[in-house]
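Q&A FORM
Asked by: J.P.
Topic: structure of Nicotinamide-nucleotide amidase

PROVIDED:
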Amino acid sequence: MTPELKARAAAVLKAYEAQRLKIATAESCTGGLVAALLTEIAGSSAVVERGFVTYSNEAKTELIGVPADQIAAYGAVSEPVARAMAEGALSHSRADVAVAITGIAGPTGATATKPVGLVHFGLARRGAPVVHLERRYGDLGRENVRRRAVEDAIGLLERALG
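REPLIED BY: S.T.
REPLY: Here is the structure written out as tokens.
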């Protein structure tokens, strides 16, 4: 990750710590990169409550309670599933804020309606409606799609602070 992104993550941690807020992550296509970025920073244990890597559909259901019928109806890469992942990470943790990411990093896995580079995010904060963000980065290569998704996840965590 870039020095700029690491600096943003450090600022997020500092702001969350000042507000005594905890973070949880639920990651699919990023495979834990958001949690890794946050925990790379010394003192992150004061803020990062836990991270879920829910790469498979079964993990989404078993670990954070995403309804299997939602995955069947909309697909794992969808707004309803991203929202359910964020809500599930919040309800299966002691965090105050949860960010979730599900997408198609490529080079395989795309369909006509779900191209490589499509990523859905969910952001849940206790007592607030879940926020959804959709990005269509395009076929930038797996590494770049995942990096951009991490950047947007940090942006959502920044946004949750108000």
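FOLLOW-UP: The domain at 3-160 is CATH 3.90.950.20 (Maf protein).
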